[in-house]
Amino acid sequence: MSLNAVILGAGDFPAKPYPRLLLEQADVIVCCDGAAAAFYRYFRDRRRPDAVVGDMDSIPSRLRTVYAERLVPVSEQETNDQTKALGWLLEHYPSLESVTILGATGKREDHTVGNLSLLMEYARTRGLDGLSTPSIRIVSDYTESFAIRDTATLYVGEGRGISVFSPDNTLTIKSSGLQWPLDEVVWDNWWKATLNRASADAVTLAFSHPSVALVMLR
User: Fold this and answer.
1) What are phi and psi of 51, to 5 degrees?
2) What is the pLDDT of residues 85-117, one digit of tens each?
3) How do strand 193-197 and strand 161-165 relate by DSSP bridges?
4) What is the pLDDT of residue 77?
5) What percent of the chain has pLDDT over 70?
6) 199 contacts 181 by C-beta, under 8 angstroms
C-alpha cells in the first residue's frame, strides 16, 4: 500500500487550509524534535506523531514524557533534523508515495535556505525529487518547492509564479512556457531566474545535461 508522509519542521507552522489539509490527511507524520511542541498544540490528543526524530536538543521536557515511546534520538551532527527525519521515513516505510515537508521555512533565514537547498541534495544523493517515487517537496503557506534532475515538463497552470535555482554554472536550461525564457541564464547567483511567470499551462525546462535545479511555485 502506498503512503503519503509529512515531515514537520520547527519553522513557521502552516496557517492556510492547503498545508494544514496535507498535515491532517498524512498517513505518517514525523516531527523534527523542535516541532513536537507545535504538533502537540495543533493536535492535542487527536493524534500522536509516528516518530519524533533529531538530536533532542529542542523538544520540551514535558513532551519527552508524553511522546516517550515515539522518540528517535540521533546524535550525529553531520546532518540536520530534516534529513534525519527523512532517513527514518525511508528506512521504516519503503512503499512511500510522497513526502511533504511542512514547517521547513520561516523564523530563521539560514534554516530556510539550508532546508530548501537540501531538496537538491536529496535529488543528487538519494535520487529523490519532485517527480520521483517517492516524490519530495517543501510546502509553505506561500510556495511549493521541489527539485528536478533533468528535462521535465511541469503542468503548473498559466499565470503561476515560478522561480528556478541551480548550483551548477555549467548547466544550460532552455525553457518554453515562461514569460521570460531561461535560455541565456548563467547559473552563478540565486536571483538569476526568480520571479518568473508561466505563460502557458505547461512549462518545459530542457537541461543540457543531467544536473539539479530547484523549482519554486507560488
Assistant:
1) -160, 150
2) 999 999 999 999 999 999 999 999 999 999 999
3) antiparallel
4) 77
5) 100
6) no
pLDDT band at residue 61 under the 50/70/90 scheme? confident
Helices 109-126 and 81-92: angle between axes, nearest 10 degrees: 40
Cα separation, 172 vs 100, in Å, equals 28
Of the candidates 55, 48, 57, the residue with the CA atom closest to the CA atom of residue 29: 48
Characterize 40-61 residue by residue with b for buried, 16 or more Cβ atoms within 10 angstroms of its Cβ, and e for exposed.
Answer: beeeeeeebbbbbbbbbeebee
- The dihedral over CA atoms of 181, 184, 186, 187, expressed in degrees to the nearest 10, equals 20
CA angle 89, 92, 95 (to 5 degrees): 85
Question: Comparing C-alpha atoms, which of 183, 157, 173 is closest to residue 212?
Answer: 173
> Which pTM was predicted?
0.96
pLDDT at residue 24, as a whole number: 97
Which tens digits make up the pLDDT trace of 140-198? 999 999 999 999 999 999 999 999 999 999 999 999 999 999 999 999 999 999 999 99
Instruction: State how far the Cα of 73 lies from the Cα of 56, in Å rounded to an integer.
Output: 6
Q: How far apart are CA 101 and CA 114, in angstroms?
A: 13
DSSP reduced 3-state for 112: helix
Strand pairing of 3-8 and 96-102?
parallel
